Amino acid sequence: MVRVSTPVRWLLRTVAVGYVFLLVAWPVSLVAVQTFEDGFSNFVGIFSDENTVAALQLTLMVALWAVVINLIFGVTISILLVRYEFPGKRALSALIDIPLSVSPVVVGLALLLVYSGRTGWFGPSIESAGWQVIYDSPGMIMATCFVALPLIIREVVPVLTEIGDDQEQAARSLGASGRQTFLRITLPSIKWAVIYGVVLSLARSLGEFGAVKVVSGNVTGRTQTATLIVEAKYQNFEQTTAYSVAFLLAFVSIACLVVVAFLRPQHEI
Amino acid sequence: MSIDVKNVTKKFGDFVALDDVSVSLPKGQLTALLGPSGGGKSTLLRIIAGLDNADSGSVNIEGTDATRLPPQKRNVGFVFQHYAVFKHMTVAKNVAFGLEIRKRPKSEVERRVKELLELVHLSQFAHRLPSQLSGGQRQRMALARALAVEPSVLLLDEPFGALDAKVRKELRDWLRRLHDDVHVTTVFVTHDQEEALEVADEIVVINNGRVEQVGSPDQLYDEPANDFVMSFLGEVTHLSGISLRPHDIELESAPRLAGGVEGTISRMLRIGFEVRLTVLTVDGEEVSVVVSRTHARSLGIAEGSTVWLTPAAGATVIPRMAAVG
Amino acid sequence: MTSALLGPPADIAGEASTGRPPRRRRTAGPRNTLTPGAGLGLGLAMLWFSLLVLIPLTAIIVTAGEGGWSSYVDVLASDQTWAAVKLTVTQALIVTVVNVVVGTTIAWVLVRDRFWGKSVLDVIIDVPFALPTIVAGLVLLSLYGPQSPLGLEWANTERAVMLALAFVTLPFIVRTVQPVLEELDHDVEEAAASLGATRGTIVRRIILPSLAPAIAAGAALSFARAISEYGSLVLLSGNLPFRTEVVSVRVLSFIENGNTQSAAALASVMLAVALFVIVALDIVQRRVANRG
Ligand SMILES: Nc1ncnc2c1ncn2[C@@H]1O[C@H](COP(=O)(O)OP(=O)(O)OP(=O)(O)O)[C@@H](O)[C@H]1O
Ligand SMILES: [Mg+2]
């Protein structure tokens, strides 16, 4: 192993730590400082603001739906991609990653073009059937699903590949049906990967901003999510509320990361 | 017949893995599928188990046509080369799996698991996770798991392939004894001819997707159907147009026997009790000969000595065909 | 950590690289091994995937094409849009270069150095990924904005754009390079040293070439993310036309003005870039896989 000399090591260490400190650690910690500058009152205050509470509830509802949908979709696709051969598999596995590099605004626009009640491709017919997608929660759930789509798949696929199909085949040879094999063998082996994926998707879903902004219409008290409230409050010069909600969001997302960081090493396969 | 495979062909894309294979395996026997790597042994075993499907041909297990049956309906036990243990279950749970799937009463499951763990000498490890077992112990557990459901046939794919030489030898003897006790029709895959010769009642030699020969170990060793089988079961050398084993060549320091081929010793290697010689004959052939150390000493030979070679009386010889080995 | 999520796409369709003893190859052309149940699952999954991703993205391309080539050119040739494109691409490139240098350094420090607090650093690297983008903007504003404790007034300048992009793209290269560096064979370095290579030579000739594909993959992801960034810029950059307005903001203002066709035209260019990055990644990946 290359041994770097002590000065070089210190230089590299300083660059790494300094960069991360200035860019991430310090700024993030300032949010906490701003929030609790005058004690807890500001932070507690957000829970008495009707619109903010509505936004938090909406955010939670949208995020949970998106995570559940992505969970079902993600696990299904992962198993299909790893365990089966079918034409078009390579293309599908590449397409799955698209949401990672598409701008949230473009995601919003794309959904708008198809599901907008007035001008979208499918929107008018869906609307005449009594459903509203855009400017309502279904659209927001779809936008959130879109941006968080690959996360669970990216956690589960490597684990499925790694464990191979020996255990599943052994179960089949011992008389287990497809369903029994999935529930008793496959699912327990990918359990932790699924949990990480869910936690990360939850963090991502709670924090989605651009795509939701486009499809929600941003109506205060009705389709405004927590991230949209941060923007609105900041621009209305209600900075303390903005910082308090931002702190709450930052706290939840960092908590998700810490949970994952703690879980992972113990259950590495 | 316990297992009847008829005209099975299996292709992967353009590659023919099994080419019109037919074998019948009698009830209660221990059969080895022997052959070089990539020959199609695993493929045949997996088709018998239903883990793969044949493109054409049929598989009959204990009198029922199993060709279209899914693996869980065939009542076969399968033991995988890399154990395929259920990592998240204890040893006892692993063994109980097949019984629980079959919804057997709890008391029966417990009793059976206990019996089986005793049979494979793992009783004290019942509550461990497989990751806390050695390779040999894992494989014994996998075997107990397969036996738990009282399969009509037991299929083992290179069961000892991933183990070190010593454990391998122990488990091999143990499998033979186990089979003598349990008497379930057993097929195991191996590419180790010694393993096959030592343990099996019957050997099926498979190469390039075809069955080369079926027979008892003695039959195969003494009457190999062709050069391939002969060379696969042991060392082979060629002497004036025939194939034979190096230790079946008589070596003389003077032309005493009729038809002796003259040659010079180009290399001489002493390994333990035997001496391996390479003899360059006057016809330009390189022949390997193995003699005992005592015999070599009594002849007083050394590198460069002139010697005469003849096939020993009663040697297994077959006419030389394509150049193999 | 989250390398599985930030790293280059797991090579699913190709050879499954298992850590276990070698298994047989399963690459016999496009075969179909779907059971009826799996086929149904694939059908439903594809239906949802199409409704959610494929059809909407197609709608962008179709809408963009509706006005014909000329309107396409008009949108892109407008001064304000062009300025936004130039700003976005320039800043994304700068940030990517910074990430290549600093990201690789951080990965190196995380793998090869040992010091108190290293595990904390490891967790912090993922913060930009998990933090909502709007919060990221707000967070940066508190250190680099009007009341900066550092005395820096970078809000509403090009610097702010760079800062925001650097923040959100920080994890990409670190998380693609880190696992490769961890797996790097120490024997090779020792062999090189025993053959007389100096430290500099080992880094240049042995380590960097092995990291190059990972760095390239991370850089591609980082660039793709940078050019599509929106949320973190909203509060920080002020969205001043010709000065700090990025492409995503431009698309949004087209949408808000009801000019969906222009929005779609610009969005389709962004999609093309995203697609290009994905294909490039796939190729790099395959190269590396072939090299063994
Ligand atoms: N799923 C598959 N896809 C493509 N080719 C396959 C597949 N399974 C097996 N093969 C090919 O079929 C041939 C026979 O394989 P098989 O596994 O039966 O060999 P084997 O005799 O068991 O060899 P080994 O002793 O190495 O296990 C090999 O050439 C292999 O590459
Ligand atoms: Mg095999």
TrEMBL record, chain A:
Gene3D superfamilies: MetI-like. It is found in: Membrane. It is a multi-pass membrane protein. The chain crosses the membrane at residues 12-33, 53-82, 94-115, 135-153, 182-203, 242-263. Residues 56-264 form the ABC transmembrane type-1 domain. SUPFAM superfamilies: MetI-like. Keywords: Membrane, Sulfate transport, Transmembrane, Transmembrane helix, Transport. The keyword Glycosyltransferase does not apply. Its main location: membrane. The complex is composed of two ATP-binding proteins (CysA), two transmembrane proteins (CysT and CysW) and a solute-binding protein (CysP). NCBIfam families: 3a0106s02 (TIGR00969). Part of the ABC transporter complex CysAWTP (TC 3.A.1.6.1) involved in sulfate/thiosulfate import. Probably responsible for the translocation of the substrate across the membrane. PANTHER family: SULFATE TRANSPORT SYSTEM PERMEASE PROTEIN, SULFATE TRANSPORT SYSTEM PERMEASE PROTEIN CYSW. This is Sulfate ABC transporter permease. It comes from Nocardioides astragali.
Automatic annotation (TrEMBL), chain B:
CDD domains: ABC_CysA_sulfate_importer. Residues 3-233 form the ABC transporter domain. PROSITE patterns: ABC_TRANSPORTER_1, ABC_TRANSPORTER_2. It holds the Pfam family ABC_tran. Keywords: ATP-binding, Cell membrane, Membrane, Nucleotide-binding, Sulfate transport, Translocase, Transport. InterPro entries: AAA+_ATPase, ABC_SmlMolc_Importer, ABC_transporter-like_ATP-bd, ABC_transporter-like_CS, Mo/tungstate-bd_C_term_dom, P-loop_NTPase, Sulph_transpt1, TOBE-like. The keyword Ribonucleoprotein does not apply. GO terms for molecular function: ATP binding. This is Sulfate/molybdate ABC transporter ATP-binding protein. The lineage of its organism: Bacteria, Bacillati, Actinomycetota, Actinomycetes, Propionibacteriales.
Automatic annotation (TrEMBL), chain C:
The keyword Membrane applies. Gene3D superfamilies: MetI-like. It is a multi-pass membrane protein. CDD domains: TM_PBP2 (cd06261). InterPro entries: CysT_permease, MetI-like, MetI-like_sf, Sulph_transpt2. Residues 1-33 are annotated as: Disordered. The chain crosses the membrane at residues 33-62, 82-111, 123-145, 160-177, 206-227, 263-284. It is found in: Membrane. Residues 85-282 form the ABC transmembrane type-1 domain. Keywords: Membrane, Sulfate transport, Transmembrane, Transmembrane helix, Transport. The complex is composed of two ATP-binding proteins (CysA), two transmembrane proteins (CysT and CysW) and a solute-binding protein (CysP). Part of the ABC transporter complex (TC 3.A.1.6.1) involved in sulfate/thiosulfate import. Belongs to the binding-protein-dependent transport system permease family. CysTW subfamily. This is Sulfate transport system permease protein CysT. It comes from Nocardioides astragali. The gene is cysT.
